[in-house]
């Protein structure tokens, strides 16, 4: 299915480091790339480096004053609470601008590769910092790299870009930056804002002005698991992408919906997440001519979940998906144990069979997942000429 696939990576991407004890530990992407390398996944892709995003590039989505504030914090490491740096979520640290701009630059490199045709698919697993706002850091995110990738492609002449966010947290920053832009369809499936940060992402948030209907939110109940999550995904995402027909599909793959994640409650399995990656890969080909830019995102179970999930993502994008029962290499298990002190997983599966009932089978008003599906479809499907119920 896949042709040329590029993975953007530089070891310096691990310098995005809020310090000991912070949930967003850079070892998670270090171990992801190590696992992908040991399993031979990286042999099936082109690897490329990246340069930091320039101030002019960052200014496509962030205010100049904010960029200057991040640079000041970067020089001395002292907080700037007005810029959102110096909080428990976003501690200030020396070098924060350089580290953040490099992640943004990696997603720009991925977007550039796909836009120019240098690659059909391109990935930045260190990216996906979707909470950053135009003038403030938020939710572990300083510069919003997926929004920047989208804005850059718009500046090159793109007229229809779809963004699908499967992180357990609402993709609020990306939604905010394109809320009144009809060229960008943002779809976020996330845990209900009633139980999880950032408290936004209700179905009624649908876009503004000419962009009405282009912000799509599917807030799901805690504990929905693979069955409910996949039912909601397939009830909402494929029909919208088929109707919108994007030139490029951009996806954010936070894996913090997993049952082991310490910060959220959706209880997905690795196998369910892998099924989502397969579906998005297929949709990239069916609706966007195969042009796909993918990033990482949240994910705070550093050994059991993130490395395996995103190794599956890279393998899926490469066109050489891994069998679920593939063993994790001994060399990787030793590295993971050395770097974290944790007992690493032995295989690339949680042993689940992520089946789900298609929404065309009928709506159950007593099911909170079905109610979430209908709320999302009621809010936006009419704007796209789609029927709310099948």
UniProtKB/TrEMBL annotation:
> Per the record's keyword annotation, is Heme included, yes or no?
no
State the family named in the UniProt similarity comment for this chain: Belongs to the histone deacetylase family.
Pathway the protein takes part in: Ketone degradation; acetoin degradation
Keywords for this protein: Acetoin catabolism
Q: Which residues are in the Histone deacetylase domain?
A: 22-315
GO terms for biological process, alphabetical: acetoin catabolic process; epigenetic regulation of gene expression
Q: What is this protein called?
A: Acetoin utilization protein AcuC
PANTHER family named in the record = HISTONE DEACETYLASE HDAC1, HISTONE DEACETYLASE HDAC1-RELATED
Q: Does the keyword Protease apply?
A: no
Task: Tell me the superkingdom of the source.
Answer: Bacteria
Protein source organism: Spongiactinospora rosea
Molecular function via GO: histone deacetylase activity
